[in-house]
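User: Before I run my own analysis I want an independent prediction to cross-check against. Here's the chain; please return only the structure tokens and, at the end, one sentence I can use as a sanity check.
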Amino acid sequence: MSTLAVLVVLLLVLVGLLVVGGLAYIVHRRPALTGPLSVAIAGAAVLVAVVTTVATAAAR
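Assistant: Structure tokens:
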């Protein structure tokens, strides 16, 4: 994997962690939406899918 691909994956991970943390915080502030843990896990699953796609494309 090239250095650029590694940096892109790292950036996606950092942005994804911010998004997951933001989702958990928003749901924690308004519990009527849904459980904070389920929203954070759903966001993390999307992050894993994106990172896997990028890593697979970079390996080709």
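Sanity check: The mean pLDDT is 82.
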